[in-house]
UniProtKB/TrEMBL annotation:
Domain Chemokine interleukin-8-like span(s) in chain numbering: 30-86
Entries under Pfam families matching the protein: IL8 (PF00048)
Origin superkingdom: Eukaryota
Keyword annotations from UniProtKB, A to Z: Cytokine, Signal
Species of origin: Neolamprologus brichardi
Keyword Plastid: no
Annotated protein name in UniProt: Chemokine interleukin-8-like domain-containing protein
A GO-annotated cellular component: extracellular space
GO molecular function, one term: chemokine activity
Amino acid sequence: MQLCIRRLACQAFLVGVVILAAAAAETKTSDCCKVVSLNPITAPIIGYRMQKKNPPCVNAVIFETTEGEVCSHWKQDWVHAKIKELEHARRARKTALKTTATTTTTTSSP
């Protein structure tokens, strides 16, 4: 009798582990782009990241907008132009921060 209860407890535990593992795998794959848009984005874009193909996920550029994330086709000309624009702005900000830090350091010295 006691052996039967232990087996049932063990089986219940294993079923729970399998369900949790399946839920975690499902959550992971649902956070990727499975389809992409060819249309330009009208909402303000605040960032981006690249996604590599890993089925069911597809190659995509994921733009972060003020309205949420948008999956875009990585071969579109407007996507390349937008990435260049975002990278240029990022480099300009980085340079401005370095210049400000250098100016503050040199002007604060006696």
